[in-house]
Amino acid sequence: MTSISEVSSIPKTKKPSDSAFKQQRLPAWQPILTAGTVLPTFFVIGIAFIPVGIGLLYFSNQVKEYIIDYTDCNSTNYIRSEGIPYKCADYIMEKPHSPTPCVCEINFQLPSDFNGKIYMYYGLTNFYQNHRRYVKSRDDNQLLGKLSDIVSNDCEPFAYDGGKPIVPCGAIANSLFSDELSLDSMRHRMKVPLLRTGIAWPSDKAIKFKNPEGDLKEAFEGYAKPKNWDKYIYELDPDDKSNNGFQNEDLIVWMRTAALPTFRKLYRRVDDAVNGFTDGLVKGDYKLTINYTYSVSAFDGKKKMILSTTSLLGGKNPFLGIAYIVVGCICLLLGLILLVIHIKCSKSVTEMITVTPNTPYQE
Questions:
Q1: Which candidate in 149, 164, 246, 332 could, as Cys together with 224 as Cys, close a disulfide (CB 3.0–4.6 Å)?
Q2: Can you list the positions of beta strands (E) in the chain?
């Protein structure tokens, strides 16, 4: 029997065990890049990508959009002493805590019928939701309905107000888009019915955002609202109590941060169950009314309202189709260039196989 002292005296080695894996003896396949393999690859990619890109571009062009930039719209309820209407952007900069929102109206005409399901978006420019500290500025436990007197440090400086925890805390929630947009149809002499639900990802509403149990007003008692909000979280939707708290879909849509500084977010859906709007929006005169409360002057931004239809592949996105076409054309072009070079300058496979170290060099 081997004693402990004898075992400890056996010299240790760093040599890997003699296995096929550790000794790198496993069978492997290494492609040899020749003109016979590379050229067909370029041509196949080019021939495949261009039709796909044309198809994507076709479906994108099927989507109709109507965009209104209302950043500098004139107020209808606030007039300067000279009789000139305020620009709402200027008014809320001068009087940010006015009890009555600045209202502006824009008349426009849809140039054609918008058939099918119609969606209303709001668009912002020059707003960097992708900043690292901004993206982290939230408390996910709080958004799951687990309220506490202690909130995440990531929410600072939007964590407490007067010693009370802010609900929901953080910079994302504090900057929630607050303009209220509505449409009037001049043809039907009524407001276009807009739905506030069905705009958020179902997975977000079912998994990431949950309300505390019990009555919402009682559950949120003792907590402060975000500094930039005019309403408490349980008052976000006065018409639908189930669309309040952390389950409010406007909040859920806003909390999914955008990757680029120019973005759009889904705001409303046209209710196609109402008579007159079952086929969408007919061409004609409309009026956009804005309760203008969201300031973009501080970051030189722009605000837009977008009406859009959808296609088989979703909303309007010409970039993907253009990208496929460009990549396909580049591959075809490279394939042709390399084919010409191969025909003019290359040697045959037989000549390359018979090359030895003693083969004389030929220019």
A1: 164
A2: 65-69, 74-79, 85-87, 102-110, 114-115, 119-124, 160-161, 164-165, 180-185, 190-191, 194-195, 263-270, 280-281, 284-292, 303-308
